[in-house]
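Board notes (copied after class):
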Amino acid sequence: MMAENRDYDALLQNISNLGDITSSEHNATNILLLLNGHPDWSKTLFLVGNESASPHIEEFAGKEIDDLGWLGYFIGRSEELEVLEVHYLPEEREQVDAFMGGVTCNQSIKKLTIRADIGDQGYDRLGCFLQNNNALTCLRLVNCHVGRDRAHNIAMALEQCRNNSLIRFDLDNSNVSTEGLAEIATALSSQPQLEDLYLGRNNIGRDGCVALGIRLEDGKPRA
């Protein structure tokens, strides 16, 4: 069965041990934190590749046998998670799409950083997340190698953002083109509450700066 088409609610009824869906006790602990929280928990989760010898409590290692659809499912159900950083995603698009599908349902995340390829469907899911989440204050896309099509997808996602909480947007080291930047800037201009805009390590050139200035002329963001 394809990961994004699984009925996780139904499957959960037959699971008595989180070890059945995680590759380590450490990952299972993170699932429990997502579900139940803890007074000492930082409400932060880093999705990484291999588990280190002494992993930080906030790290979920997704490079072994774990079904990241399950992780996305529990992130979607969490009411405690505030910071999510995605440093790794597998090559299997089904797992990525299932993971992002779960993230879409979350309404508690305040800071989202993506440092991996979420794919075209992932950007579609990102738009749904921005539409549903009213807590998000910071969105960072880092090393995402944005082409013309991906810039359009990002702009479409930003246009779906209906909350007034987003105050920072980063597009860092992402090879965004002048045309792509112009489209993203147009989408950002509909976010008057935005305060900080970071576009470091992008070769946007003079034309890109002019396009950005024109579209944000009446806006508030500080570049």
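Comment from the instructor: Helices lie at 8-12, 25-36, 68-77, 93-103, 119-132, 148-159, 178-188, 205-215. The longest strand covers residues 44-48.
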